[in-house]
Amino acid sequence: MTTWTVADDAQLAADAAGRAAGVAVRTITAVPDLAAVAGLLGAIWQRADSPPLSTELLRALATAGSYVAGAYDGDDLVGACVGFFAEPAAGSLHSHIAGVSGAVRGRSVGFALKVHQRAWALARGVGEITWTYDPLVARNAWFNTGKLGAAAVAYLPDHYGGMQDALNAGDETDRLLVRWDLAAPQVVAACRGGAPGAAVPPGAAVALGCSPDGAPVPGRTDAPVLLVAVPRDVEALRRTDPALAARWRSAVRSVLHPVLADGGRITGFDRAGRYVLHQRGAEHTTGERQPWS
């Protein structure tokens, strides 16, 4: 009798996510295909002359058995995701970079890539994937902690140092470290297309709000659960008002960093554009399950 496993369920979810996005996601090993990945990542990060990952490095990662995958719309590469393994004791894959062409934004191609990556990892006995993202980018906060059901567990100030690509230049590279427990109930639900919502408990305090003109407004930090706003579009703000973008960086860091370092946790990101941040010892309840697009 065949035993159904979480890896089998993950593969079904990955197949469904690919169909819903209208793409085929597959791992990549051939040099021409790896060169296309390097070119796509260079275009997304606006570094055509110096892409984030070279063809040679991608070839080495693929040869070593790490994760290099692309999302294809017919013959066209429209998304890519690359990860490598952590130390053996961690039993973890670190997802270093993922990007989707602007031509297919809104089709959930990024979701299809991540759900494929989860299935690939589980099939190899890996139970966790980690990655980092800029805590000021609202759409990524929603995607990671809402749509994927991942947990943001640590704040890393200026994690990469100065970066010269068009998306990060001129700002410090603060990052949130995400851990994705691949067999956790909320992750299983998320990858099937539904996940717990970001519950905002009664009595939650606004630790950082947003003024009518788009500036950060400090609030209370003495409640068990805090709400921490981020700008609606920090990437546009960096172009139009870099000083205000820097103020947001400092304000968000001043709340998230000490609470997470003290053992607090982020339990979601609400539709108002705020992190739901539980201080250490605060009770954590989840909202009702609801469908995500």
From TrEMBL:
PROSITE patterns tied to this protein: GNAT
Domain N-acetyltransferase span(s) in chain numbering: 23-168
Keyword terms of this UniProt record: Transferase
MF GO annotations: acyltransferase activity, transferring groups other than amino-acyl groups
Name the UniProt record assigns to this protein: Predicted acetyltransferase, GNAT superfamily
